[in-house]
Amino acid sequence: MPDQPSHEFLHVPEHPSGIGLVLTHGAGSDHRAQILVTVANAFCDAGVRVVRCDLAFRRKLYSGPPTPAKSPADRAVLRDAVLAMRQSVAGPVWLSGHSYGGRQATMLAAEEPGLVDGLLLFSYPLHPPGQPHRPRTEHFPSLTTRAIFVHGTKDDFGTPDEMQSALALVPSNPQLLIVERAGHDLKKGKFDMHPVVSAITS
Predict the structure, then answer these.
(1) pTM, entire model
(2) Which contiguous run of DSSP H or E holds residue 150?
(3) Cβ neighbours of residue 160 under 8 Å, at least 6 residues apart?
(4) Strand, coil or helix: 20
(5) Strand duo 93-98 + 118-122: pairing
(6) Number of domains in the chain
(7) Do residues 75 and 82 lie in contact, with contact meaning Cβ atoms separated by under 8 Å?
(8) How many whole angstroms separate alpha carbon 57 and alpha carbon 77?
(9) Distance (Å, rounded) from C-alpha 93 to C-alpha 25?
(10) Which residue stretches of the chain are H helix?
């Protein structure tokens, strides 16, 4: 199936469950990242309609790399993708992202409670590597959406213990799924996806 349009890819399940998933990438990649492909295929096989989409900076809707001042444009892309998914499925819509994409997903959900039914965050970038004194958690107390965080034990953007402490700030009682011996790329998705998929589909 070709990309339609070039900045996104739609996975249509053979046996739809009615669940939709909007999936986006980190700051150094795009919707074609291997981890996104692997995750999307796993969910599609379970009946979930999935769209992998590029953020605004990959669509060249603004120049240069992502910055806090420009990130609202990235969240606007996610909002539009969620609203489009709402028109395509009858059931819950989840918003998911890897690293920077996951951070923008949580920020959007904190800004607009009720926009999505759940969040699935892969390798949330809790802080810059080697700088735990700079946590990216300002919006966590406003995050009331159900959330599942998937994190590797060797992620240099935050240890599992640091993640567990940070998630105590989130009022929705988020779930933390640990991937042993995985770094920030989560083995490019080459780990047991069954617990992640079942957390959303069961």
Answers:
(1) 0.95
(2) strand 147-152
(3) 151, 153, 176, 178
(4) strand
(5) parallel
(6) 1
(7) no
(8) 10
(9) 18
(10) 34-45, 71-86, 100-111, 160-167, 194-201
- Does 2 fall in a domain? no
Closest CA relative to residue 93, chosen from 24, 41, 23: 23
- pLDDT tens-place string over residues 118-144: 999 999 999 999 999 999 999 999 999
Largest CA distance in the chain: 47
Please write the tens of the pLDDT for every residue from 50-63.
Answer: 999 999 999 999 98
Domain holding 96, by residue range, is 8-201
Question: Would you say residue 2 has pLDDT above 50?
Answer: no
Residue environment code for 189-199, b if the CB has 16+ CB neighbours within 10 A, otherwise e: bebebeebbee
Residue 102, domain CATH: 3.40.50.1820
Tokens of 121: 């965050």
Average pLDDT of the chain to the nearest whole number: 95
Q: Which residues contact residue 127 at a Cβ distance below 8 angstroms, ignoring those fewer than 6 apart?
A: 133, 134, 135, 136, 157, 158, 162
